[in-house]
């Protein structure tokens, strides 16, 4: 790999400080015991109510540098928030907890908003160069119930979209039976919100498009996906482009391919087939917008940031599964609409080990995100050879020894 200049960044400074001090949810919020459906505590993660209070606190103490707005409601009426910082003409959109049992991204966003809203010279430089928009805990119903999907029935979808009463079956991503990831969906059905996106941002649900399938676009039938779509469209109208979109997730327990080393974080910039190739010809209308090389540059910036310190606590960063064709994901939809896209998948979900490793994983997300932000501000991300992406180690479901 070619060498890139090393710069003194806000991300590096925040990391050094965080490694010397314990990570904790601010004491202004009492630690509540959240009910959940597995044996691991998740009380260290903030609730929706706590998050709302902290957002308002950050907005107030930032003296207006951070602007908080309610941009929608979940199916059960919980507010969906957007927090915006910066005035630059390049836009970064970051969302978290689209799956309700994937919680570290929200914690990282809160820490970053606190930092980016302060009056330091470095934060001001970032604000001058970029407009950063955060959508934390965007599936608040799922988050409060500690489940992957939202809390919504097919009957409620049909009530909102009466034309779907003629659909042959509910959406394929709807679950109303059995147990998935330790949660009983027969009692509280829901949709995987991250399969409810459509590259046609003005799409209106049609009965002939149901039940659909994994490799087909979604429908914007959930209020959570609609909120994300509406924020994205609003930014397009204001700026003409959303330069970067980042989706913060968790995965199960994975390994570096060919080893027994457990992965800390998987990343990726590939979610649909390239419209400029034969395989991606069905997306031809988006080929002028799609920018896979920029997505690869962004991912290399993350990889370098997480591996740039000696004895890094964030070792074993890998590429998530490649060759995907998932236009119904937020990442696939926004990639086709011109955004450089980045997936974060930190190890484990709440049913794997609850809040264990919370501090390290939150800081890994922060450090990776600052790799993007700092690289955009100093210009280094644009100098990266996209082919370096292909040298990042791959993720494996199984350890090389086959033991657990």
UniProtKB/TrEMBL annotation:
Record domain Peptidase M14: where: 44-404
Gene3D superfamilies listed in its UniProt record: Zn peptidases
Name under which the protein is recorded: M14 family zinc carboxypeptidase
Cofactors: Zn(2+)
Top-level lineage group: Bacteria
Native source species: Alkalihalobacterium chitinilyticum
Record Pfam families: Peptidase_M14
Chain segments annotated as transmembrane: none
InterPro entries: Peptidase_M14
Entry keyword set: Carboxypeptidase, Hydrolase, Metalloprotease, Protease, Signal, Zinc
Entry similarity comment: Belongs to the peptidase M14 family.
Taxonomic classification: Bacteria, Bacillati, Bacillota, Bacilli, Bacillales
Recorded GO MF terms: carboxypeptidase activity
């Amino acid at each position: 790999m070619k060498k890139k200049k090393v710069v003194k960044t806000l991300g590096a400074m925040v990391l050094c400080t965080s490694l010397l001090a314990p990570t904790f949810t601010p004491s202004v919020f009492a630690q509540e015991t959240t009910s959940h459906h597995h044996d691991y505590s998740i009380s260290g993660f903030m609730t929706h109510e706590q998050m709302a209070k902290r957002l308002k606190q950050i907005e107030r103490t930032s003296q207006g540098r951070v602007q908080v707005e309610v941009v929608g409601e979940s199916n059960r009426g919980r507010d969906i928030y957007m927090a915006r910082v910066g005035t630059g003409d390049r836009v970064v959109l970051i969302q978290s907890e689209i799956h309700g049992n994937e919680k570290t991204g929200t914690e990282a966003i809160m820490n970053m908003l606190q930092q980016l809203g302060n009056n330091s010279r470095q934060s001001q430089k970032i604000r001058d160069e970029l407009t950063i928009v955060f959508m934390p805990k965007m599936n608040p119903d799922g988050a409060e119930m500690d489940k992957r999907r939202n809390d919504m029935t097919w009957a409620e979808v049909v009530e909102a979209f009466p034309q779907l009463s003629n659909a042959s079956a509910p959406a394929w991503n709807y679950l109303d039976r059995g147990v998935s990831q330790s949660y009983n969906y027969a009692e509280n059905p829901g949709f995987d919100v991250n399969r409810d996106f459509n590259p046609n941002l003005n799409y209106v649900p049609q009965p002939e498009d149901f039940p659909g399938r994994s490799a087909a676009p979604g429908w914007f039938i959930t209020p959570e996906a609609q909120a994300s779509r509406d924020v994205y469209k609003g930014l397009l109208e204001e700026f003409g482009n959303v330069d970067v979109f980042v989706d913060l997730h968790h995965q199960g327990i994975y390994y570096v391919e060919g080893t027994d080393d457990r992965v800390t974080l998987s990343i990726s910039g590939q979610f649909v087939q390239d419209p400029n190739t034969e395989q991606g010809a069905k997306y031809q209308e988006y080929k002028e917008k799609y920018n896979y090389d920029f997505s690869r540059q962004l991912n290399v910036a993350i990889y370098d940031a997480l591996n740039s310190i000696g004895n890094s606590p964030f070792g074993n960063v890998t590429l998530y599964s490649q060759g995907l064709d998932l236009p119904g994901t937020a990442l696939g939809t926004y990639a086709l609409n011109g955004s450089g896209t980045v997936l974060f998948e930190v190890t484990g979900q709440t049913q794997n080990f609850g809040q264990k490793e919370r501090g390290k994983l939150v800081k890994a997300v922060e450090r990776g995100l600052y790799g993007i932000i700092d690289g955009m501000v100093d210009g280094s991300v644009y100098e990266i050879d996209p082919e370096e992406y292909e040298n990042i180690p791959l993720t494996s479901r199984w350890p090389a020894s086959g033991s657990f």
